[in-house]
Amino acid sequence: MFAQFALHERLLKAVAELKFIEPTPVQLTAIPPALEGRDLQVTAQTGSGKTAAFVLPLLNRLLGDGASQARSDVRSLILLPTRELAQQTLKEVERFSQFTFIKSGLITGGEDFKVQAALLRKCPDVLIATPGRLLEHLNAGHLKLNQVEVLVLDEADRMLDMGFAEDVKRLADECAQRQQTMLFSATNGGSGLREMVASVLREPLHLQINRVSELNEGTRQQVITADDNAHKERLVEWLLANETYQKAIIFTNTRAQADRLYGHLVASQHKVFILHGDKDHKERKQAIERMKQGGAKILVATDVAARGLDVEGLDLVINFDLPRSGDEYVHRIGRTGRAGAEGLAISLICHGDWNLMSSIERYLKQRFERRNIQGLKAHYQGPKKLKASGKAAGVKKKKTDKKDGKKTASKAPARRKPSADKAKSSGPSLVGNTDGTAPLKRRKPAAPAAE
């Protein structure tokens, strides 16, 4: 029960109104130390309820300090990697603060700069932003962050992946007087995240809610081999026609591939939306809203949608292209199997994808279920030989003859060396003039003896 936490009565009222009854594991673990003011580094899977784990303690601090009084500075800052995730977080903040006087504001790319500047002049208590656009306003002199009390970095690993490391550090430095910093991520993030933790957090409490191998336990993970992209398109059509699902998302690695697949599915009479970086803010927002409202069951997207997309009933993820890392795979399949629900994640792999798939399996400490579709079985069924790691065993390189440059499977028999006397009398083995009047031609070597 949320009543076990030392939360302000107005927050408990909002929680009851929203019918939040049992806290999730990340909420049970993170809320108590967050209420004590500790700096936190929390690793928890996408869809685990971590937004409430930092929003409730943040609002509780602001209420305790008298949020109803007029303020002339931003008091808390939440940084996120994408506008979609920022919009979703704003809604959560507004829901939990509905019975308070706390005001919140949103600053992301794709919106009118002057309108945002006017919002910043009102100094919202809670500012939710993406790093790039917020830095633009900071450089333009539209806000000060020296009175920020709480800084939250949500999806910090994704911000690093998107190249926001320097922007985040700069904004954290601007919040020099902050009393608490909380960093949340879906993965351990590697050395880049460790560097950020060391530079931004102060004696943090590290909370590992889920080991990587435990992420998305409610999601079945399958692999289907394919011969080429045209084969993959036929497999996608079969899966969309025969799998039982409420809503599906299909991931590609490039915008061009997303456009091609979208056109193919539309031509096949599927009602589908597309989401990638070339789409403007209005188009992206419209696609997500229609998915949520049930206007379409299928979304084709690049990794721009791998974070911040929270659509109820999304229970099928298809990786048309394999993601480039284990972390990205975790974020993609995190779209399904949320909050304990069941889901299905299917990856389509060609010859060149096998080793990457094997690396992802080792990262997750799992082995994906192999599957074939009757009538669409690929000629490629994986490498003939595997290493102990699960990767394809390499073929031995053919040796190259240094003299003639030809590749030979075995070493050619050694030629006999001419005797010293014969070498002196015969001179160099050349055909043609030796005075420079005609190009010299080397005699063709005798063919190697048959073995």
From TrEMBL:
Residues of the Helicase ATP-binding domain: 31-206
Start and end residues of each Helicase C-terminal domain: 235-384
Motif stretch (Q motif): 1-28
Composition bias type Polar residues, residue spans: 426-436
GO cellular-component term (any): cytosol
Pfam families registered for this protein in UniProt: DEAD (PF00270), Helicase_C (PF00271)
Composition bias type Basic residues, residue spans: 382-400
Residue span, DEAD-box RNA helicase Q domain: 1-28
Family, similarity comment: Belongs to the DEAD box helicase family.
GO MF assignments: ATP binding; hydrolase activity; nucleic acid binding; RNA helicase activity
Chain positions covered by the region annotation Disordered: 375-451
Name of the protein described by the UniProt record: Superfamily II DNA/RNA helicase
Keywords in alphabetical order: ATP-binding, Helicase, Hydrolase, Nucleotide-binding
Domain of life of the source: Bacteria
